[in-house]
Task: inverse folding
């Protein structure tokens, strides 16, 4: 088995009294497309900055292609294509000049690919960057990121604020180009439909910790939604092992429960609390995400609501 492209061990980072990353472990194998999701402020961009060598590890280690990205930025960054949600391209340059300038840093620059992507994105190479729309700006950044066919592509919310047509173009270009080259991709997004379409693995980060990391199918197979009925003022679910979230159902005395684990064991645990399981179904990725963001608050809020519903 080849060494991982990205290997992060026990990585922690503080900004003042705030914990941005809390003992992160993450390995990304070659050829993997990993979706990184989490609420705003969860630590996604901070993690990416460590991978790019923009932040030094305060505790733990970060290795990309087996190298420390801070100690050997040339060895790492020369093999990465990066697209940020920030409009950080030099506004005074024309697109053709930006291509020419960037080309000098990458010996593997592929002029044919640049031409292909420029035509597909309908970019005017004579246009100045500062006059580009948000969609044109992202398309230009994507051309620059893909032009040297990097073995690692890092995308930090690349389609944030884009209309659906541009989002589709960006995603299709990423899928097409990376499928041809076998690149490894780390893709950060708050749009779960993008993650499901592009990724084969998913890492969910909440409050600086990775709470889920698995193949998408594995995540779906481990999470279940139960419709349950209970007697009394509220469903006693707060301490049930495996329960992540509950919310009121449509009828008094019913609620919907999101849980992780073996479905039969979860059903028995729920029944042991005096509730009746009416049905169960697989969860959606949205449901898993919402249950993981603030599980304790979700369960308590649901219990409070069901008290009033009865």
Result:
């Amino acid at each position: 088995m080849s060494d991982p492209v990205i290997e992060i061990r026990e990585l922690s980072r503080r900004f003042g009294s705030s914990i941005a990353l809390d003992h992160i472990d993450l390995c990304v194998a070659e050829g993997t497309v990993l979706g990184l999701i989490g609420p705003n402020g969860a630590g996604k961009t901070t993690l990416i900055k460590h991978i790019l060598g923009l932040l030094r590890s305060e505790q733990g280690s970060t290795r990309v292609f087996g190298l420390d990205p801070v100690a050997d930025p040339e060895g790492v960054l020369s093999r990465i294509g990066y697209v940020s949600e920030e409009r950080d391209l030099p506004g005074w340059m024309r697109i053709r000049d930006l291509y020419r300038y960037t080309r000098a840093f990458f010996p593997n620059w592929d002029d044919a690919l640049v031409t292909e992507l420029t035509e597909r994105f309908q970019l005017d190479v004579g246009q100045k960057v500062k006059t580009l729309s948000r969609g044109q700006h992202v398309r230009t950044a994507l051309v620059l990121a893909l032009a040297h066919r990097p073995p690692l592509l890092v995308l930090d919310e690349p389609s944030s604020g884009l209309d659906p047509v541009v989002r589709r173009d960006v995603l299709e270009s990423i899928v097409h180009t990376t499928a041809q080259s076998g690149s490894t991709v780390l893709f950060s997004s708050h749009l779960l439909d993008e993650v499901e379409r592009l990724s084969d693995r998913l890492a969910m980060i909440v409050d600086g910790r990775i709470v889920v990391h698995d193949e998408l199918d594995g995540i779906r197979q481990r999470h279940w939604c139960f419709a349950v009925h209970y007697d009394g003022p509220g469903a006693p679910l707060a301490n049930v092992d495996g329960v992540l979230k509950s919310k009121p159902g449509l009828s008094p005395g019913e609620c919907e429960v999101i849980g992780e684990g073996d479905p039969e064991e979860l059903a028995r645990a729920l029944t042991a609390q005096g509730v009746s399981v009416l049905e169960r179904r697989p969860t959606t990725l949205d449901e898993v995400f919402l249950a993981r963001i603030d599980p304790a608050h979700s369960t308590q809020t649901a219990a409070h609501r069901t008290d009033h519903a009865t």
Notes: Confidence is low (pLDDT under 50) at residues 296-310.
